[in-house]
């Protein structure tokens, strides 16, 4: 094995390790819902190549209003899916789309783009 | 001069419950100058009629704010149709832009390709300066990257910031690597030469990949708009205006959003019915095919319900509005279909898990491919081989096919179902319907019309028919049972004078008792009489047996402890039932019937429609038990019913099908709602579910096998044995076609038509 091979091997393995850590194990941005006087839990989410924040905490049995602002035209994020609540919504680009739901039970529910590439989690406590 | 009123519509925000709506309404009504205020909680809109001399939009807003709620400034376009139209416009613009990007990439790739191949002709090469050719190719490739492919890189970068990777990440890394390598080979060819490498460039690869992937996207977008065509067509059915009769008798055309409950609306021949209501005067035939799939127009007269979006054919009529906006039948159908399209099918779970980790995994495989090629290939070719295979792996991987496999099929099929009057609650219901091998039919209202009529009225010898009719009718008038209604209808036809009944009591599954003319009157089945200790005279038994032999339901009548007559009631079998049951059996499904009738009636009806197995004398509360019994035999049971007392059985069944005009309770418990009262809907539902799941399976199989075979081949797994390598350009072609194939396969469901004879 020559020097170049050793360098490429080490760099490759290192890069693969980074990919695993970065996409699967690094910590994510979490946001808790803000409750309004009416008892509505509101969260603003920006959609641009992903959801920020992508982990959202809400309380059970209180209506939740998620406002998704889609800050891009890329077609990947045009659909929003929250399958556990039977929600499929199209998000117009550069517009805010309100999604309302009422979590009845505690648990973690995924929300994703139409193809399940962009992912976020709704944690109901 | 009489002051003219103005109408203002406000978008209210912050209402969380129906009582909030009434609160806002009160606050508005109390505002000086307001004549009428209606607040709709569902649409979050307030419609206010006010005198402009005393109130203004500003004072109205103030009233809303005083009540503790907010007013959203109205954008000029807020109706659902407008929003949809805007979304469609945005999509059309995006599609045009995508097409432009594709054509630019394709045009440049067509030039870049032959120029890159010059080296295949050594005689040509001698006349061309390699260095200048490479710079020329670089200039031609730049627009492909920066204009056509720009979105891949921004999207990949945005995703990366979110620790998310998508298809664009793969394309960006793949083409980015090929391009950067080529730029290095163009700018510092000496560095490559000194290491014994040819300074090869991959501009053609970069440009062709981008052009092909964009082609795939263009085709994909075009196909995707067709998957939701059905629901758009449904939404488009909504009438735009309604001709409302004002209190002064004037007929005014108003936008549909302003129609309110209890308004009277005029519908003339050939017009669309604006919203749901009850006919007050006039009669007509109405085409309800768009809601129920029933092709024959339905006769409507005063007192009959009409539904928004249906088409009035022959006569004109006026109806009183009973439902508006989100409460109408059309809106509910649209909502149900939308919900179903947003639901997740259990079959998709594996694909979902795979997509969640797909892209990072492919990146890792690509990196390892690079390392292995670099380490194992001969020194002089190791870098280009490592690079080409690295790019090929990234480009061939197609998470889209996996992601599109299930939802597109579900979308097409739920829309198609709605078109045929079959409303599927969610993807899971569709999957359950696919597994069904036994259909349990509640006889009344499904196989039969569910509208029994009295065919025989037989008093015992020595009894006066007219008098007996009076007594029976007095009891039955108090009952809500369909059989009782038939008796009452019969009595009315015979112009029987009414008598008063007291102490009415309904005995579940058996009949009813009451006191008429101070005599105890019992009307019901044989059990009712037996349990009251009443015996039948042989003459009556003989009559009853005769009626039973004709498959009629027999009501026994006892007055003052004596059996005094029998009534034969028959519920006619729907013309379509036998054929539909035959079709179900042809699909390999066992059809079982259950009924509250006695075994003779049950056998007769079962024989008429070709059913071999049936449960007779099933009491309403035993229905769910019968479903369990079939399930205990290891069957997957679909229960078809129509009434309130079916709800537990519908819920118990693996899949419940509630039949047309079904009650809300039954629709709640059912996975599938059939808009049309006819068993053909069951055939359609099961056939559609089978075709859909078959399509999904094909899609998933294809998407998995494509990636499972494609990625190793692209990584060069065949090279050691066959010397085969996959060009990244071929990989791009395969990738572009793979998601389109899945979509096209799903779109085949649009051609679904229910099996007929």
Give me the side-by-side strand order of the main sheet of chain B.
Answer: 14-26-25-24-15-22-23
What is the helix/strand order of chain A?
HEEEEEEEEEEE
Radius of gyration of chain B: 36 Å
> Tally of extended strands of chain A?
11
Q: Beta fraction of the residues of chain A? A: 35-45%
How far the N terminus sits from the C terminus of chain B, by CA atoms, comes to: 69 Å
Helix content of chain B: 40-55%
Q: In CATH terms, what is the fold-level topology of chain A?
A: Immunoglobulin-like
How far the N terminus sits from the C terminus of chain A, by CA atoms, comes to 55 Å
* Number of discrete helical segments of chain B: 28
What is the averaged pLDDT score of chain A?
84
Quickly count the domains of chain A: 1
Largest sheet of chain B: 7 strands, mixed
CATH class of chain A, named: Mainly Beta
Q: TL;DR of this structure?
A:
The complex is a heterodimer of chains A (125) and B (757). Chain A has 125 residues and is α/β, with parallel strands linked by helices.
């Amino acid at each position: 094995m020559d020097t170049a091979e050793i360098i490429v091997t080490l760099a490759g393995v290192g890069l693969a390790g980074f990919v695993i850590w970065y996409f699967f194990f690094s910590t994510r941005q979490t946001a808790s819902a803000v409750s309004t006087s009416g008892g509505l839990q509101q969260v603003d989410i920006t959609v641009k190549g992903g959801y920020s924040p992508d982990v959202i905490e809400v309380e059970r049995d209180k209506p939740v209003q998620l406002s998704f602002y889609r800050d891009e035209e890329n077609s990947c994020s045009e659909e929003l899916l929250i399958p556990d609540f039977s929600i499929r919504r199209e998000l117009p680009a550069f517009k805010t789309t309100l999604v309302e739901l009422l979590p009845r039970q505690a648990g973690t529910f995924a929300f994703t783009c139409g193809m399940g590439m962009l992912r976020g989690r709704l944690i109901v406590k | 001069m009489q002051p003219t009123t103005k109408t203002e519509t406000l978008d209210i925000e912050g209402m969380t419950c129906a009582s909030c709506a009434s609160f806002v309404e009160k606050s508005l009504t109390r505002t000086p100058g307001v004549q009428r205020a209606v607040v709709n909680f569902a649409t979050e809109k307030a419609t206010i009629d006010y005198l402009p001399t005393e109130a203004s939009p500003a004072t109205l807003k103030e009233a809303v704010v005083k009540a503790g709620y907010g007013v959203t400034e109205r954008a000029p376009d807020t109706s659902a149709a407008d929003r949809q139209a805007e979304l469609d416009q945005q999509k059309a613009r995006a599609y045009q832009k995508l097409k432009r990007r594709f054509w630019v990439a394709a045009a440049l790739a067509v030039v870049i390709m032959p120029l890159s191949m010059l080296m295949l002709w050594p005689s040509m090469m001698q006349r061309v300066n390699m260095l200048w050719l490479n710079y020329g190719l670089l200039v031609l490739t730049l627009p492909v990257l920066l204009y056509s492919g720009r979105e891949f890189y921004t999207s990949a970068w945005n995703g990366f910031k979110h620790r998310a990777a998508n298809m664009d990440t793969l394309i960006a890394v793949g083409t980015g690597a090929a391009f950067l390598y080529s730029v290095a080979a163009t700018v510092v060819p000496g560095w490559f030469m000194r290491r014994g490498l040819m300074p090869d460039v991959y501009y053609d690869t970069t440009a062709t990949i981008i052009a092909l992937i964009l082609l795939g996207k263009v085709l994909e977008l075009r196909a995707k708009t067709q998957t939701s065509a059905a629901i758009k067509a449904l939404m488009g059915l909504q009438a735009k205006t309604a001709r409302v009769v004002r209190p002064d008798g004037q007929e005014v055309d108003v936008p549909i959003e302003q129609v309110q409950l209890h308004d009277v609306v005029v519908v003339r021949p050939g017009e669309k019915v604006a919203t749901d209501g009850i006919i007050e005067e006039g009669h007509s035939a109405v085409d309800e095919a768009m809601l129920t799939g029933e092709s024959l127009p339905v006769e409507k007269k005063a007192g009959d319900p009409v539904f928004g979006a249906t088409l009035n054919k022959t006569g004109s009529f006026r109806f009183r509005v009973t439902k508006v906006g989100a409460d109408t039948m059309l809106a509910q159908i649209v909502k149900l279909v939308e919900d179903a399209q947003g639901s997740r099918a259990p079959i998709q779970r594996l694909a979902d898990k795979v997509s969640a980790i797909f892209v990072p995994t492919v990146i890792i495989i690509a990196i390892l491919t690079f390392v292995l090629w670099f380490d194992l290939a001969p020194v002089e070719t190791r870098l280009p081989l490592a690079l080409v295979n690295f790019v090929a792996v990234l480009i061939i991987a197609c998470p889209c096919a996996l992601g599109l496999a299930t939802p597109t099929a579900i979308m097409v099929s739920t829309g198609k179902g709605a078109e045929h009057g079959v409303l599927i609650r969610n993807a899971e219901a569709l999957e359950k319907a696919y597994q069904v091998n036994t259909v349990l039919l509640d006889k009344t209202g499904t196989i039969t019309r569910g509208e029994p009529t009295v065919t025989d009225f037989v008093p015992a010898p020595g009894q006066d028919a007219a008098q007996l009719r009076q007594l029976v009718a007095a009891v039955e008038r108090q009952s809500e049972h369909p059989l009782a209604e038939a008796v009452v209808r019969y009595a009315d036809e015979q112009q029987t004078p009414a008598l008063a009944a007291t102490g009415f009591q309904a005995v579940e599954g058996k009949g009813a008792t009451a006191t008429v003319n101070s005599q105890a009157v019992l009307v019901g089945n044989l059990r009712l009489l037996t349990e009251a200790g009443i015996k039948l005279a042989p003459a009556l038994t003989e009559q009853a047996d005769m009626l039973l032999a004709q498959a009629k339901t027999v009501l026994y009548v006892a007055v003052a402890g004596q059996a005094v007559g029998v009534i034969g009631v028959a519920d006619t079998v729907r013309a379509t039932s036998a054929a539909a049951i035959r079709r179900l059996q042809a699909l390999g499904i066992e059809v079982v019937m259950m009924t509250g009738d006695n075994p003779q009636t049950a056998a007769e009806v079962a024989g008429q429609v070709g059913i071999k197995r049936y449960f007779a004398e099933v009491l309403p509360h035993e229905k769910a038990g019968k479903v369990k019994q079939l399930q205990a035999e290891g069957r997957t049971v679909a229960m078809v019913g129509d009434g309130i007392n079916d709800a537990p059985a519908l819920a118990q069944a693996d899949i419940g099908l509630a039949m047309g005009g079904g009650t809300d309770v039954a629709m709640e418990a059912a996975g599938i709602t059939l808009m049309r009262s006819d068993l053909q809907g069951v055939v359609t539902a099961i056939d559609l579910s089978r075709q859909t799941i078959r399509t999904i399976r094909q899609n998933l199989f294809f998407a998995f096998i494509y990636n499972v075979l494609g990625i190793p081949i692209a990584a060069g797994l065949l090279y050691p044995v066959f010397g085969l390598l996959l060009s990244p350009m071929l990989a791009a072609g395969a990738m572009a076609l793979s998601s389109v194939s899945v979509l096209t396969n799903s779109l085949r469901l649009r051609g679904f038509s229910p099996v007929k004879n």
